[in-house]
Amino acid sequence: xxxxxxxxxxxxxxxxxxxxxxxxxxxxxxxxxxxxxxxxxxxxxxxxxxxxxxxxxxxxxxxxxxxxxxxxxxxxxxxxxxxxxxxxxxxxxxxxxxxxxxxxxxxxxxxxxxxxxxxxxxxxxxxxxxxxxxxxxxxxxxxxxxxxxxxxxxxxxxxxxxxxxxxxxxxxxxxxxxxxxxxxxxxxxxxxxxxxxxxxxxxxxxxxxxxxxxxxxxxxxxxxxxxxxxxxxxxxxxxxxxxxxxxxxxxxxxxxxxxxxxxxxxxxxxxxxxxxxxxxxxxxxxxxxxxxxxxxxxxxxxxxxxxxxxxxxxxxxxxxxxxxxxxxxxxxxxxxxxxxxxxxxxxxxxxxxxxxxxxxxxxxxxxxxxxxxxxxxxxxx
Length: 381
Known about the structure:
Helix content: 25-40%
Shape: globular
Strand content: 15-25%
Number of strands: 16
Radius of gyration: 20 Å
Low-confidence stretches: none
Number of helices: 13
Largest sheet: 7 strands, mixed
């Protein structure tokens, strides 16, 4: 069945030559964009939707989330808001709750969060494990994640769990051995948290190399808590993305600009932890590819809203509204090494959002306002 969306006030396609079109129309056929052009001149279709001069944008691509978990860390957030600094060790609280939860409980919570994301315009989401930290708990987290997305990431190397506190080398051996063996079949990617309180560069290199040897793509958490060698390692290993990038050296920026590794910025984290916001302008002006994602998790960024993250990125990270929208759509697609999503050019998936606004600028101009009028996605498969 074909669908014509006509009378679009502003259409964002993210095409290189003409990324935006005023007074536009769009035809969808078989789940893909079949035609893009001027309003009133589209070919006939089986179904007609009048956009009524609203703005139409690609669906958001949230390339970083941790939504298979149990428990609540609102008390930790409250403590941070009264002066306690953020530290990676809080992850262990969620690990304990997640291990104790049933598969049904974990699946129900994940489903609730995916529904929140979809209602706010997210049409593709990446989901990580990382709150089990045993072979069986990591595998079941990924099996649950796989029922919601094809973009699943094995993050056994989130932190060293309490039972391995005195033997981090033993935990790295577990992650790269038995845990990887049972998780690889459920994952597309492998990730590691390379930062203070988590894993060092040598440990991260061993973990990522073990994963890529099993056919998984590499991605990284890095430079969230302090400058480190994480960004350089991500580029060295050809990782699809390095995420957080809160504390970057000039050498890090240069390395990202000269590579195809995407710098994924996570506005909700700085909002929730009161860390300094990274300056996207440094990366954009250097020529690096930049994405925005929610990092939805119960500790450092419990938001599922890409519109909120866009607004924060514009307000506090030196993105223009157009740059922030690109980073939240095409940038997220680049971070997942996908070309079929993140835009609305002919041949791409027809994942789109009709905003109840004349322009995407309203995402930042009217923060916190529910501007999503309708979300449309191509059928799975």
